[in-house]
Structures are given as structure tokens and as C-alpha cells.
Amino acid sequence: MTRLQTPPEGISQETLAGLVTEAVQQTLVQHGVLLDAQALVSASALAGSVAAALPFLPPAQRHAIDSFKGDWTALISEFFRMAAEKIATGGPTVSDQASSRVPPETVRLQNIAERAAGLQSMLLEDWAGEVAGSTYLEEKLRIPRSTLHRWQRRGEVVALRKGGRKHVFPLAQFVDGRPVLGMSDVLSAIANPRLAWFWLTRPAPELVGRVPIEMLREDMVADVVRAARTVS
User: Fold this and answer.
1) Are 84 and 91 a contacting pair, CB within 8 Å?
2) H/E element, 139
3) Are 200 and 212 spatial neighbours (Cβ–Cβ below 8 Å)?
4) Which helix or strand (DSSP H or E) is residue 87 part of?
5) Nearest Cα to Cα of residue 180 among 160, 158, 203
6) Inter-residue contact 47 to 20 (CB < 8 Å)
7) Quick one: CA torsion of 37, 43, 46, 47, rounded to 10 degrees?
8) Radius of gyration of the chain from Cα atoms?
9) Rounded to whole angstroms, how far apart are CA atoms 16 and 29?
10) What does DSSP assign to residue 202?
């Protein structure tokens, strides 16, 4: 029996499910897995429920699961097929069961998830504004490629993937050949660069309708960083 299969002392199954749900949802968002909002919430809630159920099963059932050597994907697919049929014939709905386990923190992430889903169907140029590659930045802004890549590795500049492995850089984030102050703090709060730039370039309710990137260019760093942490 693994340590994960032993219920942590003093924690309920519902609490454990909520913790896993929130962690899964944040991870999917931060790594740019662009599901629609409902799919993101459902997938995270299901992952939390499954992970939390195992430690609380009787020893015989845990042993049976440990000894299973078959196709987990096929087994889970069959489970969902049966669940869908039960729901269609009048059984309890997934939303009714999941709502009691999804913590308020998870619900607050749904707004970000909806924004992420919307970016899927939009061309980069349609929402990100002016962008340029490393060649342009080196020639026009005199930013060496090595410096640009170092900023990118350290999370100090927004780099947006375009096509295969190519990255482009929104021009509005640079002032005097450097990223605006506060950019690294924003990216630390909103790790997904597409979501971060989307938030930075739109009027933010957290900032009374002001555009965060414009405020950063005016050295209003503290207000923007505080709002970014609230959003995240």
C-alpha cells in the first residue's frame, strides 16, 4: 500500500477532493491546456473526486485496484458511458454531485478559463496587438537575442508561441529596449503568457477599467501586480 492510499490524518474525503480539484485546474490553466470553461471545471472536479476516493476505500478494494493490470483508459471510458446513461434515465446529475465538492476557490478560476477558451479560436494578431520576432527586436530595438532569450527563460518578458516552436514578443511591453517594470511579477502571478498578455491588454475590473499594460508603462507597478495576484 502506498502512502497516498492512506487518508491523511485529520482531512476529510471532500476536503482532499477540493484540494486536488483546485491543483489540477490551476495546473491545466498555467500550462496552457485550453479547454472550454465547463470542461475545465468538470475535468478538474472529476480528477479531484477520483484521487480523493482511493485513500478512503476499504483495504480489500484498494488491493484490487492495485492489482489491476488492464487498460485504465478503457475502464474509465466505460465508467463514463455508464454514468451518462444513468444520468439520461433520471439519475443524479454530475453537476449536482460535483457542486458539493468544488471549493469556492475553483469557481473563481472559471472566469480565467472562459478567457482561455476564447483565445483558441482567435488569431494571435487579432487579440495580442503588434508583435515581433527576435530578429526585428535585435535590429530595431537593439535587444540582443541572447538577452531576449534570457528574459524569456527567467519569466521577465511575455513570449507568445506562434506556429510550431516560434515565439513572438508583444511590442507594447518594451520601454527603452527593456520589458516594463512589473512584468516579471505579473507573469509570476499569471503563469500562462497568453492569459497574462490578454489580461494586461484589456480593461481590468480589478483596476476600475484601466488597462494594466498602460499602467505599467506609467510606472504604476504596485497596483497592477496586486490586481494580477487577485486574478490568479
Assistant:
1) no
2) helix 134-140
3) yes
4) helix 72-88
5) 158
6) yes
7) -130
8) 22
9) 20
10) S
Helix (H, G, I), strand (E, B) or coil at 126: helix
Name the DSSP class of 204. Answer: B
Residues 132-155: tens digit of each pLDDT: 999 999 999 999 999 999 999 999
Q: If you ran DSSP here, which 8-state letter would residue 121 be given?
A: T
Report the distance separating Cα 27 and Cα 48, nearest Å.
13
Most distant CA atoms of the chain, gap in Å:
68
The grid cell for 189 is 502571478
CA atoms of 220 and 106, how far apart (whole Å): 29
In sequence order, what are the residues at sequence separation of 6 or more whose Cβ sits closer than 8 angstroms to the Cβ of residue 110? 37, 40, 41
Measured CA to CA, the distance from residue 125 to residue 174 in angstroms comes to 18
Contact 170, 158 (CB under 8 A): yes
Nearest CA among 122, 116, 123 for reference residue 39: 116
d(CA 213, CA 194) in angstroms, rounded, equals 14
Determine the average pLDDT of the residues in 16-26. 71
Residue 201 Cα to chain centre, angstroms: 18
How far apart (Å, rounded) are the C-alpha atoms in residues 232 and 228? 6
Q: How confident is the model at residue 196 (pLDDT cuts 50, 70, 90)?
A: very high
